[in-house]
Specification:
Largest sheet of chain A: 8 strands, mixed
Number of helices of chain A: 14
CATH class of the largest domain in chain A: Alpha Beta
Oligomer: homodimer
Number of strands of chain A: 18
Strand order of the largest sheet of chain A: 9-8-7-10-6-5-11-12
CATH architecture of the largest domain in chain A: 2-Layer Sandwich
Helix content of chain A: 10-25%
CATH superfamily of the largest domain in chain A: Histidine kinase-like ATPase, C-terminal domain
Strand content of chain A: 15-25%
Chain lengths: ~450, ~450
């Protein structure tokens, strides 16, 4: 006799005393003179010890013997929800490949999102990277704050969903109000802030920087602030308690209400107090930042801010870039975009990326002897803008600028104990071309010869 | 008055007629002289039209007016299960970066899994790549078959779970039987078959090749075959019907039973008929293969089999590689690994990768004038084996072998309409070093100068 039963069925109530074989035979209507065995679909015999360990929903077979061939096929229900690591660790592998530059790249991902959020601002666009490392504020935190359009609770919920492209986001509870992606109008150098192409960006960047991310956001025309915390600790706790890992809570509250803030995160009080009076905003609050990251962000402050100034050069200085000497070459329209970086520690620093004068793009622009601009339309309706700059070897001197903080290609360890061997690309040589995607530098991209 | 109610609560039974405001006031115990409004947490007023569109589980506010400030914070339950595209599309981006070589790389991922599965075989290890393109068999299919240890239904379930590292796999229903990862014993050139480091490999490789993957597997010492189908079509159907996308069914059946096979997949009958008599095996059956892939696999058969022979050179020929002329240099132990490729079409081809004589590694080995071997122990206990080969320019002739099918670096289109700009790395120049990870070539990895 073969019976497929489920541990969910009442007949297999594991709370009762199931140790008596006779009782079980009665329960499964097995004649008392017949031998039977209860096995999992992996043919493990479910004896009394195993019985208690069984998980709910397990499919079991009632067989004459353990190895009896199944006379009929059976179907077993399974669940294969992705592991929460897809959400919190996916950045590890991506940013690992970028080596020393991984933190600036992760921060840039968050700046990308802020640029997208502020793209339709009618007044100035302000993006602040705050490094709150002074221990009097509580635990160390990295906050990326923008005065953009904010997110509705539905959009915040969808932000938390791991997916591979933003084109699949749901924006409204109501079918009739769903957004469809609209390609922005063409603007010079594609400075349309339509940067963050993949939906994975924000979460993986945040979890590359720390262990926990709190999104605080207020959409335009809403009286409510929405908050959502995703944290590694919380995921682990839920997994241990066999709870649904992908269930969470959005806190909806009025602006300025910090009654839920604990003393270890008292820096949040300041962040939340400043909410009142803002029409809309988004704050990405990252905690659980590891000591190495804190050390890098403090010690190499000028290096990584310089890298960010290079990446967002055209957003900061306009389509023509930062021409320092010849005003006639400057862009007519200077973008109203401020990217501010603040380090609150002892001592504190504050810096507007527009004031960076030695980012590579500024050096390239101001040392070129001649430039050639071109524009190409692709058959799919896209546009490629290009600039060739001429840096001759002139009067016994190389006019091509030197990178002040040259990125040393890491010495290949060729170590078969970690996967670095699979990641390190040849980057020993200097780039000749650089690619900007919608106005934003894509690190490490080079044009093939 | 602010009341947080849930659409799940019986008070908001949307099946009834809810169009009468007076009736609703009664239902929510609102005094008849008081105005009220029902809004979502995004402050969309739920009028009669919207009411019917509401999704189950929506949190609603009962407010005096739409913009009333929340006097108390409210919590809203959300769900953020990853989108199924993480499972079926993750390969798209990875393999996209590898351009023309994407199909051999995806097939190699499946060969990796087969090598791992057969690592403990006591008899010969056989891995077959079958391209079933003869339309008399039904729809076109790519089958990767191995005579390895197979998977239990629990392991098959876990195979389907998207996660980022195999170190987190669950192998048993029972806590007490969980496997922990054991690093294999050191062997020459690390030919331990412990290749597939990331858990994402198999699924993303399969979905890069086609739209549907059927895993058929029989573990050692089990009388049952387990089958699981993941298909894009099925995922889409479930999403449309708002069903749980990550719930599926494993079919458990006796070997050789193909009663569930439809005529459009009649090639499966052959695959399943051959099950009887095998102690264990795994077959990865991919359908929904697009015409371009079929064309490439047929037309460039010799090119991609040559690439696979290069990638698995040391698995096929042993730790010393394929020394064609000098037998004394050959490995003492030739691995009992056969990687067979069969194209069933008109005409049919069949090929054992060991017979490939012009893969790059064979050419390198047989043209080098001198070699220098070294071994380095890393501080973490790993070992790096290295071989330097000397290919001098000799008697007016370059002894470094030419790549017969040189991979042309794709012409950079610099097109801001697709993300290729973010992916193409500089690959114009020839590699000087190549990295093998546990004996398997990692494409595109180079040692930094």
């Amino acid at each position: 006799m073969v019976t497929e039963i489920s541990a969910e069925a009442p007949v297999l109530d594991r709370r009762g005393d199931q140790s008596d074989e006779a009782a079980r035979k009665k329960e499964f209507a097995v004649p008392s003179d017949q031998r039977f065995v209860l096995v999992t679909t992996d043919r493990t015999v479910v004896n009394d010890g195993k019985y208690k360990e069984l998980q709910d929903g397990s499919t079991l077979y009632l067989l004459q013997n353990k190895d009896q061939v199944l006379p009929v096929a059976t179907e077993e229900n399974i669940n294969f929800v992705p592991h929460y690591n897809t959400l919190i660790e996916s950045g590890t592998f991506e940013y690992f490949a970028e080596g020393q530059k991984s933190l600036p790249c992760a921060l840039a991902e968050l700046v990308d999102n802020a640029l997208s959020a502020t793209a339709k601002n009618t007044e100035g666009r302000t993006i602040e990277i705050q490094l709150l490392f002074d221990r009097t504020f509580g635990k160390p935190a990295v906050v990326v704050l923008d005065n953009g359009c904010g997110m509705t609770s539905k959009q915040l919920n969808n932000w938390a969903v791991y997916r591979l492209s933003k084109f699949m986001r749901e924006n409204s509870t109501f079918e009739s109000e769903r957004d469809t992606y609209v390609r922005p109008e063409p603007v010079p150098r594609s400075l349309n802030s339509d940067i963050s192409y993949f939906g994975v960006g924000g979460k993986q960047a945040a979890f590359h920087i720390g262990d926990s991310v709190r999104m605080i956001t207020k959409p335009i025309n809403s009286p409510d602030v929405h908050e959502l915390v995703l944290s590694k600790e919380e995921f682990q706790k839920k997994e241990q308690n066999k709870e649904d890992v992908f269930k969470g809570t959005i806190l909806n509250r009025k602006p300025g209400d910090y009654s839920h803030v604990t003393s270890s995160e008292r820096f949040l009080q300041e962040v939340i107090k400043e909410e009142t009076g803002k029409d809309s905003f988004t704050a990405v609050v990252i905690t659980g930042v590891c000591p190495e990251h804190i050390k890098y962000l403090k010690q190499d402050f000028s290096e990584w801010t310089r890298q960010l100034a290079h990446i967002y050069h055209y957003y900061i200085h306009g389509a023509n870039g930062n021409h320092k000497t010849d005003n006639s070459l400057r862009s007519n329209v200077i973008p109203q975009i401020d990217i501010l970086v603040t380090l609150r520690d002892k001592p504190s620093y504050s810096m507007n990326l527009r004031k960076v004068e030695d980012d590579m793009q500024t050096l390239y622009i101001n040392s070129a002897v001649d430039t050639f601009e071109f524009k190409v339309k692709t058959s799919e309706g896209g546009t490629v803008d290009g600039v060739l700059r001429y840096h001759p070897f002139l009067y016994d001197k190389e006019t091509y600028p030197k990178d002040l903080n040259v990125l040393q290609a890491p010495v290949e360890e060729d170590d078969d104990e970690n996967e670095s061997g699979t990641m390190n690309q040849a980057r020993g040589k200097r780039d000749i071309f650089e690619c900007f995607w919608n106005g934003r530098l894509i690190p490490y991209t080079t044009v093939s010869e």
